[in-house]
Amino acid sequence: MSARPAVVQAPRRAETAYAIAWGFAAVFYFLEYASRSAPAVMIPELSQAFSVTALGVSTILGLYYYTYSTTSLVAGILLDRFGAKYVVPTGMVLLAIGCLLFAIPQDSVGSVGRLLQGAGSAFAFTGAVYLASHGFSAKSLATAIGFTQCFGMLGGSMGQIAVGPLIHGFVNIHQFWMGLGVVVLLVAVGLLLVTPSEKHVVTAGEKRNFLTPYKVVLSNPQSYLCGIVSGLLFAPTTIGDMVWGVRLFQEDKLFSYHDAVFAISMVPFGWVFGCPLFGWLADVLHRRKVALLIGVSAMLVCALQLTFLPSVLPNWVTLFVFGISSGAAMIPYTIIKEANPDYVKGSATGAINFITFSITALLGPVFSKHIGKTIGSSMITPEHHFFESGIFWIAVIALALLVSFALRETGKST
């Protein structure tokens, strides 16, 4: 039998300290999502700063997901091996440096900055979930994870609805990225100061089995199913909303810049409510899978309505409901932790992040090549272009629904 690290459990009084540290990590996640979503409202400015086309900007922005997905694996290992005190602040430093580099008007430097943003951001949610698992009881863990994602989506919403007017009236994009980098560094210092230290008793075989946690997680078929479902549900928000959303509504729906930003920002704003709502629902029902199926079905209905019957409701209303429903994408993060042993908590989150955003990294270029690059093209009508985009995301969500049925229920009946 493979040896595993034995962790000296924190006494009950330390739970409060972990909960406070989780709060700082949630702020980290807020800032990470702000950095992820903000470029959607400054595509023309970034295009001018980096001297590339809008498609070139989308390529630079897409680099984020390559390092985010791969570094998620590293983050999980480091958290399980060394704890959160130094690991998570290190991720924040990487994000901060990435933001500062993104302020430099040169495409190669901006690309490096975006890569570092992705690498550092991988520690945000993984670290927050790790701290939540130490600071909250099992009966409220799904709710805590939902509130964690709530902070992230609030950052995603503010990264669009607030940053848009900000860069068009108060600061330029270079000042914005420099300021964001400084704020991230300050929060990193606070997190370092409040996070408890953990003592790990190293067994004889631990050094030889550094990857043992991932062997456990990735040998479980349920881990892959969780990642696939979550990835397919994240893709419409990360690609469809945070990269192409504003331009899609401006060019295809003829929205003004302000109206397009407002409509698209409703998706992450809906997550602010949807993530804790579906986390709470999964805890109350004691049925993770049922809550997940409800959310995915609602997402599919919203996508169908927006594509086939767009005049039935205002677009922003549909997008807001879509955002609320897509909060169910966080439920697989609870399922994967419950489907694997307790001693691989960090690695389980790292693994699902890797699979989730690997799917985003794969679907992003596909959408960009076949749909994104034709936005505004005279070869295709705006109505048909918007319809093609809708069909793409309907197919992705429908596939997520089908895979969801293969998940094993991990909730406990009472």
Radius of gyration: 21 Å
Which percent range fits the helix content? over 70%
Note the run of SSEs as H and E. EHHHHHHHHEHHHHHHHHH
- Indicate the proportion of strand residues: under 5%
User: What oligomeric arrangement do these chains adopt?
Assistant: single chain
Q: How far is it from the N-terminal to the C-terminal residue, by CA?
A: 34 Å
Indicate the low-confidence ranges by residue numbers.
Answer: 1-10
* Average of per-residue pLDDT values: 86
Structural class: mainly alpha
What's the overall geometry? globular
| Separate helix tally | 17
Number of strands: 2
Report the sheet with the most strands, covering strand number, pairing sense and barrel closure. Answer: 2 strands, antiparallel
Strand order of the largest sheet: 1-2
Question: Would you write up a description of this structure?
Answer:
With 414 residues, the chain is mainly alpha-helical. Helices cover 74% and strands 1% of the residues. It has 17 helices and 2 strands. Strands 1-2 form a two-stranded antiparallel ribbon. Helix 6 runs antiparallel to helix 12. The longest helix has 29 residues. The protein is globular. The two termini are 34 Å apart. The N terminus is likely disordered.
Index terms:
mainly alpha, two-stranded antiparallel ribbon, membrane, transmembrane helix, transmembrane
SSE diagram, text form:
Elements: E1 6-7, H1 14-37, H2 43-50, H3 54-82, H4 87-102, H5 107-135, H6 141-161, H7 163-167, H8 173-194, E2 200-201, H9 212-218, H10 221-241, H11 245-251, H12 257-285, H13 288-308, H14 315-325, H15 331-338, H16 345-370, H17 382-404
Antiparallel strand pairs: 1-2
Helix pairs in contact: 1-4, 1-5, 1-6, 1-8, 2-3, 3-5, 3-16, 4-5, 4-8, 5-6, 5-16, 6-12, 10-15, 10-16, 10-17, 11-12, 12-13, 12-14, 13-14, 13-15, 13-17, 15-16
